[in-house]
Design a protein that fits this description.
This protein has 109 residues and is α/β, with parallel strands linked by helices. Helices cover 34% and strands 17% of the residues.
Length: 109
């Protein structure tokens, strides 16, 4: 494939629904060599400047996810959707996690 036809690197936006999940998110960020893995704040900045949405949102929910973090992630997801961009949500969680999502996640791991 010629250089000009090389697809852009995939962007996986990371969110942590509880502080104890931050080390897992950082480990994922360090291991993800295929493209950027910004947090929600950086993802919002990228969107506001370039209208480039991530290829997926990855939510590290933990056992007791905080409602504020989930609400923030959902607001960003709704912003993308309002612009006609559907960004899948992948949730890394434990079975006991109670997620109050307004729309279902695309996948759970």
């Amino acid at each position: 494939m010629p250089q000009s036809e090389t697809p852009p690197a995939p962007i996986i936006a990371l969110a942590c629904a509880e502080p104890s999940m931050t080390p897992r998110a950082e480990a994922f960020r360090a291991a993800w060599s295929d493209g950027p893995a910004p947090d929600l704040t950086e993802t919002g900045r990228i969107w506001s400047k370039t209208r480039v949405a991530p290829d997926a949102l990855l939510l590290f929910a933990g056992a007791t996810p905080g409602t504020q973090a989930i609400a923030r992630m959902e607001r960003l997801r709704d912003t993308f959707r309002a612009a006609g961009v559907d960004v899948p949500l992948i949730v890394e969680t434990r079975k006991s996690a109670d997620l109050a999502l307004s729309r279902p996640a695309s996948a759970f791991v």
